[in-house]
Each structure stands twice: as C-alpha cells, then as structure tokens.
Amino acid sequence: MPLNIPILLTWMRVALIPLVVAQLYLPAHWFSQLEYDLCATTLFILAAVTDWFDGFLARRWNQTSSFGAFLDPVADKLMVSGALLLLIYLQRCDALLALVIIGREITISALREWMAQLGKSKSVAVSSLGKIKTAAQMVAIPMLLFNGRLFGVIDTMFWGTLLLWVAAVLTVWSMFYYLRLAWPLIREHDGQA
User: I need a surface site. Which of 33, 104, 108, 178 has the fewest CB within 10 A?
Assistant: First the structure.
C-alpha cells in the first residue's frame, strides 16, 4: 500500500465520519444541539473538501495509484452513507431517500467491480451525471446537518431536503444510465456462460 499525502487525506476522510457519529454518544450536557449541528456540519464539509483535495494532489504530484483509486470511492460511499444514516437518526432525512442513494451506490460499485473483472471497467466510468448527483448530495447533506438558517436567511432544511430529492432522482437516473451502458456486456457475457 503506497503511503502519500493524497492517500493520507483519503484515510482522514474515512476517520472523520465516526467522529461525527461519536458526538451523539457524548453526554447531552456537553453540547447544545446547535453546537452539535455546527460541529457535524464542519466535519462533513472538511471530509468533502479532502475528497476534492486528495484527487487534485494525486494528479498534480503524479501520485495516483491503484490503491488510491480503490480507496477514494470507498471513502466517499462511507462518508455519504454514514451521514445519511445519521440524518435518519436525527429525523432530518426520509429513510426512503437514504435507501435509494445507498442502494444505488452498492449496485453501481458491484457493477463496476464485475466490469473490472471482465476487463471492461471503462464502460462504466464516472459520467457527468454522476458528478452532478454527487455535487447535489455534498451540498444537501451539510445543509441538513446544519438544520437552521444560514446567514439568518437561507432555510437549510428546506434547501437541503430539496437538493437531496434532486440527488435521489439523479441517483436513479444515473444508475439506469450505467446499467444501460453495461447491458450489452452483460448479455454478451451471459451468452458465453
């Protein structure tokens, strides 16, 4: 396993999610709900920034690796899944939305793994639709974690919920997009079996 700054940032992203959840188990008198929400939001945003930053540094410093390519999406899935489960617990996210988003991530991860085994991983490479979905999630989740009025004006629950619905629709759309791309290969492989 190579060890460099981009991979360390990815590991840091993995480590931040349990910190967000662990706060729930601290005595209630240690934090007000506002302090908890602000801390959870800040940690999630920090994790999201490391997601962008580790990829940028890996490309810039030519420190890309197959382990980094494996770990980065795993860290992303853990980060989003952990945050969505936390939002369900806090009653700020509909469980159906979380199920759709997490279910899609599992499905597409399995599809990519299978395609890689067939030597066809390029056929399910990340699309711009997937990137838009991720952007919607990465804005929605901290808004829902914050759960208040940003700058006294922006209702983060309203906008976060709206963006999470947008992310869920894009999640389903992008899942069918990837499955449609892979379908000829699936049929071809089944025909050879």
Answer: 33
